[in-house]
Amino acid sequence: MHNFSRVSVIGLGYIGLPTAAVIASRGVEVIGIDVSEHAINTINQGKVHIVEPDLDMLVQAAVTTGKLRAALVPEPAEAFLIAVPTPFKEGKVPDLSFIETALKTIAPVIEKGNLIVLESTSPVGTTDKISQWLAELRPDLVMPHQDMDHADVFIAHCPERVLPGRVLQELVSNDRIIGGITERCSERAIDLYNLFVRGDCIQTNARTAEMAKLTENSFRDVNIAFANELSIICDHLKINVWELIKLANRHPRVNILSPGPGVGGHCIAVDPWFIVDSAPEQAQIIRKAREINDSKPHYVIEKVKQAADQFKKPVIACLGLAFKADIDDLRESPALDIAMHLLKDNIGEVILVEPNIKKLPSKYAAFDSALTPLPQALEKANILLVLVDHKQFKSLHLADVASKVVIDTRGVFG
Ligand code: SAJ
């Protein structure tokens, strides 16, 4: 088993920073690299620039004990863990530029015997590309795709799988899929993850590991699309979809997910497109599911417009703006998207209730005055649009809202 005394994490975001802090908490020296000076300065003060339960304490302890340090310029290390974003660009084509830039940044400090692990969710073939790119950047080193048995560096993919809001628990307890370019690459990466993972580290090859991560998020997306399609069918047939799903889920082999206003976040709505891009002819259900989930916000907007037509002076209260329950994350949120459309469409007065935030992102600052506490919103609105199942909304009773038109996209009233 290989012991690591110095690890570098490239990209100190929602995945990289918690991973760096957890590795540091195991007594390993960790150097975190990021392009943001703000992130570097914040971390070096023992503080965090992202919201995640308990992360602040862990980072503070790791920085105070000198085990974690952040820097703009890379330094030599035994292992490099790349955790940068992989968004898509025009035409839903994966954008690997962050990975390529990260690799160019670390290439000059890579030494014989080093391990490079890609954690970023990536299309199939990306880990092989890293080996090829690095061969060009460092022709003095032998890459695993060039000589399986005598490579100078080890390269593997180990996709992150943690759920925002539970990152620190899941980083340690989740099983990890580890796919190296060669078996030796996988084994070296397993040694690294065994430092902090209590779940199983399961060995495979790089392409299967890449596809496994995309498959997990696509599985979820397809199943949410099924629930969203059911909700639209049930509206048409005048059936309560929430009751229907509860009943169907009583079958021992049925487990339908929950419909909603659409799918948000940075992963489930993005990753299936990586499969579609790699296999456009074959990936039919996966593409259709994406289309169904992406169209759900428009369906909700149309429903609100129809309801607003019944009132002379419609007052629409949007309950929740975050992308899912009990978090403050508004990025890629269908709820925010719907609320902003309604505000801009001038179909009546629109008020916003989001108990987890005090201010809207600067892009929407003009609408800050629409933010309203829940009791006032309940008093004022004649249409209640439930967009997020925050705990504050789940504690409402149907009697509290009996006089209003309720459009409940999350089933908080069952
Ligand atoms: N949603 C529904 N109905 C459901 C479940 C979710 O509409 O029944 C919506 C949510 O409201 C939200 C979106 O889907 O808008 C995604 O939320 P989520 O909680 O299902 O997942 P994420 O995006 O926060 O995290 C996912 C996780 N993947 C899986 O559960 C397979 C996480 O483990 C991954 O690490 C993460 O993506 C990632 O980074 O890829």
Description of the molecule:
This protein is an alpha/beta fold and 414 residues long. It is 40% helix and 14% strand. The chain contains 14 helices and 14 strands. The protein has an 8-stranded mixed sheet with strand order 3-2-1-4-7-8-9-10, sandwiched between helices. Helix 8 (206-237) crosses helix 10 (271-278). The chain is elongated. It starts with 5 loop residues before the first strand and ends in a 6-residue tail after the last strand. The model has no long low-confidence stretch (mean pLDDT 96). The protein binds ligand SAJ.
Can you describe this structure in just a few lines?
The chain is of the alpha/beta class and 414 residues long. The chain contains 14 helices and 14 strands. It has helices spanning 16-25, 37-44, 55-64, 97-106, 126-137, 167-173, 183-193, 206-237, 241-248, 271-278, 284-308, 334-345, 374-380, 391-394; strands at 6-10, 29-33, 68-71, 79-82, 88-89, 93-94, 115-118, 154-157, 176-180, 201-205, 315-319, 349-353, 383-386, 405-408.
